[in-house]
């Protein structure tokens, strides 16, 4: 039995390692990110992550409810008032050509399943609310934000992997990466837990009001 358990741990470790290597080679490879998280599911770090999340105000209520929103419809969001969260999110998808249903699905059985699905589901909402961009540096900065708020293991791996990737391949960009990580972490540390929000229940609410409600600057800007 111990041998089987050890073999499973090795498989998960190799999956995580493969995901990290894939991310360093191609930061746009979304599957690599999900491979990292899937490989970490049975790690002790995931236990700490779940414990941390359960201490965040408002999260346990959504977790008990298994609150997940239906798939986003960009056409419906474009009809929201100008300046609203829904309108801003629609513009985000249209500008970047993103598919709102891109993320790898998880069958929600456990509390951890729910947390992972909800964070994947609301990833682009977090980009819009925080004002953190979707370029390579922006994605690392958002992971630093997630790390400050939730201690998500995948966020730590991607933050560190991003640093390593830029150190090896684009050292001239290290200043921007470090500034982005610092910016994202400070925003996440000061803000109310974004995981506790029911964004989809109030798309028409002004984005500025949402930011104020969760303790974010009205115009959060990445450092130049």
Structure in words:
Helix 1 (2-25) crosses helix 10 (153-169), helix 2 (30-40) packs across helix 10 (153-169) and helix 9 runs parallel beside helix 11 (174-190). With 224 residues, the protein is mostly helical. It has twelve helices and no strands. 33% of the residues are buried. The termini are far apart. Residues 1-14 have low confidence and may be disordered. The chain has one domain (44-213).
Instruction: Let me know the number of strands.
Output: 0
How much of the polypeptide forms β-strand, as a percent range? Answer: under 5%
User: Which segments are poorly predicted (pLDDT under 50) over 5 or more consecutive residues?
Assistant: 1-14
- SS-based structural class? mainly alpha
What is the mean pLDDT?
A: 88
Brief descriptors of the model:
disordered N terminus; 224 residues; mainly alpha
Overview in brief:
The chain is mainly α and 224 residues long.
Write the layout of secondary structure elements.
Blueprint: H1 2-25, H2 30-40, H3 44-54, H4 59-65, H5 74-78, H6 85-96, H7 111-121, H8 123-130, H9 136-150, H10 153-169, H11 174-190, H12 207-213
Helix pairs in contact: 1-2, 1-10, 2-10, 6-8, 9-10, 9-11, 10-11
């Amino acid at each position: 039995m111990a041998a089987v358990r050890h073999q499973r741990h090795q498989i998960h470790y190799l999956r995580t390692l493969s995901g990290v290597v894939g991310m360093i080679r191609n930061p746009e490879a979304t599957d690599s990110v999900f491979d990292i998280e899937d490989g970490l599911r049975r790690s002790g770090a995931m236990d700490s992550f779940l414990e941390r999340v359960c201490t965040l105000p408002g999260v346990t209520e959504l977790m008990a409810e298994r609150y997940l929103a239906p798939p986003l419809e960009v056409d419906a969001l474009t009809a929201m008032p100008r300046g609203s969260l829904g309108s801003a999110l629609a513009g985000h998808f249209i500008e970047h050509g993103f598919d709102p249903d891109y993320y790898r699905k998880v069958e929600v059985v456990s509390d951890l399943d729910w947390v992972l699905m909800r964070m994947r589901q609301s990833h682009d909402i977090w980009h819009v609310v925080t004002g953190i961009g979707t370029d390579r540096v922006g994605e690392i900065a958002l992971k630093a934000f997630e790390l400050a708020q939730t201690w998500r293991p995948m966020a730590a791996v991607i933050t560190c992997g991003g640093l390593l990737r830029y150190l090896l391949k684009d050292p001239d960009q290290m200043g921007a990466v470090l500034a982005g990580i610092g910016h994202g972490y400070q925003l996440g540390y000061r803000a109310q837990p974004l995981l506790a929000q029911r964004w989809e229940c109030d798309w028409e609410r002004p984005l500025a009001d949402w930011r104020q409600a969760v303790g974010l600057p009205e115009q959060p800007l990445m450092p130049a």
